[in-house]
Amino acid sequence: MAAHTLLMSTGARLRDRRVRLERRATASKAVRGSLVSLAGLVGGPVTNQAGEEVGRLVDVVARLYGAESYPPVTGLILRIGRRRTFLAADAIGKVHAGHVRLRAARVDLRDFSRRPGEALLARDVLDHQLVDVDGVQVTRAADLYLAPLVDRVVLVGVDVSLPTLLRRLGPRRWQARPTPERVLDWQAVAPFAEEATEGPPEVRLRASRTALHRLRPADLADILEDLGRAERQQLLGWLEPEQAADALEEMEPAELEALLREAQPEHAARLVDEMEPDEAADALRDLTPEERESLLTRMPDDRSAELRRLLAHREGTAGGAMTTLLIIVHRDATVAEVRARLAEQAEHRTEIDAVAVVDDEGRLLCDMALFDLAVAEDAAPVADLVAWRAQFGPPVTVRADTPLSEAADQLVAARASSLLVVDDTDRPLGRILADDLLDALLPERGRVHFRRFLQ
């Protein structure tokens, strides 16, 4: 049944993606047949209606960050002699492969001043990094494709294929020929032109930004690892803090360390503050004492104190790998009350697989699995479940100074997915999850993502 449900949900996602693709401009045969290579245009002639050359094309200006699904061309940058000048889009008559023809014999040339949201496509986007939000990967724009759409020229696609790079190295007559071996529709792209622009660009990402928010944390981690320094800081700024923190938790330690060092201290502290306690402590351990203190002093006092307690435990011990995120309930509570406590922590569902039941002194009585709570009656007292669990023996726990190798042996022997860490009086301190043990004991294993494997 679970496999059937998974297949159905996967099929639904694929159908949704197919519908989105069919609605895109590059899916139209008419549009694909009228594609014009930006690389082939740059350096080419711009002629007036009489066929006389007005100048040579230097760049194409488009409103990259606007409300439109496909950025409209708003003008051209021309070289006339030694002068560079701007020609508004309403003067463009026809964009051919390799050259542009204007509407009239006389044209209005003016100085170029960037308006909000505009980018120079050849300078700011061509050969720069992009995020393919459909393929979930970082790529580079080998060429950009323009096409007439309704009554204007728009940017419709990005070519990321190797043959296109080779075509651009060839003779001029080759450069103007589109070779769309692998075209990404512009709606599937998140560009990083902000760092490359002059003036105040206004970043508005529309569909591509929405698509970024749909990606899994592991996919975002892959993207962050592949981006350059400026681009990944920009991507982090687009994400909600919680989503960014989830992605950081999936990154390789060395990449995460570099990212935190690159970020402004206030931003880095905010990201670490959003991470799960054990993941945050691991990230801070990789920094120098000065860097660590700089981030801790920028966090709320209670969060900073919590992380300092975790950092006080030696690396390679249970205390050094545990999370302090615990659900602790008294034995007098009902199952319904415990479920309400769990519902309050829904955002931490991946960190909680059991509930610690304690007595009046706060000492551990039972480590109650969520399955046992799921099948119990709402009105049932937790004490009854504790009594029932007692037949299987006392809960398996470890001390904070227990070596991780020993904790792993106990976890395997108990056939559990986590272990509680307790103090000398059996009061819960934290919990070690199975995946945290694997990360600590097998750091060289890296992260295996199905997406990369299938590619």
UniProtKB/TrEMBL annotation:
Highest taxon in the source lineage: Bacteria
Organism ancestry: Bacteria, Bacillati, Actinomycetota, Actinomycetes, Kitasatosporales
PROSITE patterns linked to this entry: CBS (PS51371)
SMART domains membership: CBS, MgtE_N
Domain spans labelled CBS: 390-448
Name the UniProt record assigns to this protein: CBS domain-containing protein
Entry annotated with the keyword Ion transport: no
Alphabetized UniProt keyword annotations: CBS domain
Pfam families: CBS (PF00571), MgtE_N (PF03448)
Keyword Phosphoprotein: no
Cross-referenced InterPro entries: CBS_dom, CBS_dom_sf, Mg_transptr_MgtE_intracell_dom, MgtE_N_sf, MgtE_transporter
